[in-house]
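agent> call fold_tool(seq_1)
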Amino acid sequence: MEESRIKKYPHFDAPLTKAEAKALVADPKKVSHHPFYPFLLWVQRWSRFAKKGEQPTEKKRKIRCAARRDSYIFSHYRKMLYHKYESELHNLALQDCVLAYRHILVPGRKSGKCNIHFAAEAFQLIRKLGDCWVIALDIEEFFENLEHEQIKRNWSRLLGKRDYDTKHPLPMDHFAVFRAVTHYSWIERDAAYKTLGLIGEALDANGRKRIKYLVSKKDFPIQICKPHDFHEKLDGMIKSNCNTWGVPQGSPISDVLANLYMIDFDAKLNAQVSSYSGKYFRYSDDILIVIPGSDTRWNQILEFVNESLKSTAPRLKIKDKKTQVYSYKKISDGADQIATNIGPTEGADGLEYLGFRYDGKRIFLRNSTFSGFRRRIAKVSERMAKNHVLFNPNLSLKELIDSFNYNVLFKKFGRVGEFEFAGSEYTKWTFWTYIQRSIRILGTMSSPILRQINDYKSFARKRVRNAIEKDYYRLRHQ
């Protein structure tokens, strides 16, 4: 029996079997001549955390999805590069410094560590040192500024070519993959869907025109168009990266290329920080430096970081407004510490790292993480309230509010009051799974996370009431 077809997400090419995928990626000649499709691009949008009285700003992240055959090729070559990259990390003693996009095992288990483990280990290190100072840095527009020539040079280096040959830097199949992920092209997903008749204008329940999916989920095509339709209808929509820098965030190979790109920077920073008996960590574009003691050499470290970026990755820059420098002092009667923001920018009450905040005593969800959770609650609450008003046009405002089924709403978020996570009931809501794992991994110091989220019911009720009132009066004044 033929193997089941895989990679069932909508894209330009048809699904293929595992056998077909393996035959493609195992043949360097086929890869060398493979015609790569454009990526499908969509934009993730969310509001940044804003302090009271401030206007929230929108954050965007461009995600590009590769066609099925392209994705298998990228994944296959990623695997080849990943094993060689891991060997290089060990040769340079960087295996404990580079954290993201690697399978680092949890001791005694087969599962890999995630950002929660790395945050926990960083905070535990700070507590263990007692007196120390910490620098947290963010690299600006990381994937968008990786220079192609350096990617090619380091790629060649992994393949054992220590003497870089500009004319023949990579084997033909590797070069084809390199070209596809650097001189890449893309088509905006929603524009393609609209051209192909998959989305378009339709009337909503209020009789207003909205851009909606015109094909039901179960009938949505896995191959969104045939090759002749692609060339006839979509060719003119293709956009290309004409720069000599940038790789698409979301491609299966971009993560290992980003790590590979930074390998000389990582080596420099680790050597410098180690000379201070400190620890250096990089999680993708997040850098953390922990130095024992109580002196104020942080300015020297910041200068060294900027100098190292100029010499090893000149297009990359540090986001100055997100730079944090904290001094931690041990309190004499226990393991707790006093955290002091010592510059150069104002920060929250404690170091923020990988979604969490450590104030010297306890660990909290970072403000932006918690605000994201509240936005999700608000979105679901308002949608359910709107539907409640639409489906009950004869009820009064009081009757609408009183008859709303809050239990159905609350079940979507789990029993937060008791914070019970029995069985798989809550795994469908990824935020609760994340909270559960966070508390388990971070331990007793994470108890404030419970207090941060225990007001979700009153918050949801308020959102529902406001949404019901808004839609009730709007519908009656149409």
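agent> call fold_tool(seq_2)
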Amino acid sequence: MIDIRHLEVAYGHARVIHDLNLTLSPGEMVFIVGRNGAGKTTLLKTIAGLLKPTQGEIVFEGRPVAGEPPDKLARSGFRFVAQDKKVFSSLSVRSNIELAAHGAGEPVEVAWKKAVEIYPKLAEFRALPAGRLSGGQREILLIGRALVGNPRLLLIDEPTEGLAAIVIEEIFRILKGMRQTVSAIIVEQNLSIVKRLADRIYVMKEGRIIREINDQSGITDSARLENYL
């Protein structure tokens, strides 16, 4: 589905991503782990078109897409859920979904029904300004919004960061439920989530992929994974 080859990304003269290679097959859920400053967010932003690489290729289903603008990538089925949990705060919860539906060309009622199916409490909050939701509820709204229009590639940055355990389990349930319908690259530090959902894990350090873990014993080995965080 996606093949990243020899990717390099810089902020000015400072190179942040170094000769990075990564693949994602259809139906896979791949996680990226590593310490703060490893370049994980930069990588997702580059795939999503928010940053342009200085070198290398990003090939999506056989088509080079590196450097394409975010709106064009969105029309190709890319969705990016940023770490900041920013919603359209003054608009209602339902209006947030409606905006996504209009942008994706999906009927509003279809989009709203899907959002409520992944998190039924959204129906209770439909008229509430989205800015009044808790951090976890905003994250769930953002994931629901990203799933509008049947995306083909979901990029999620730190979905459980700073959230209570009960909300983390809700997000786990949502991510698990969507894995049959969309491929995903997810940056995540919560090893409980990673171990239970990952098909493969890439470990990043100082802008490089230093290890790929693709065996189940390695994916579920907490002690081994903790060495990289």
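agent> summarizing second result for user.
The first helix runs from residue 40 to 47. The first strand starts at residue 2 and ends at 11.
agent> awaiting next instruction.
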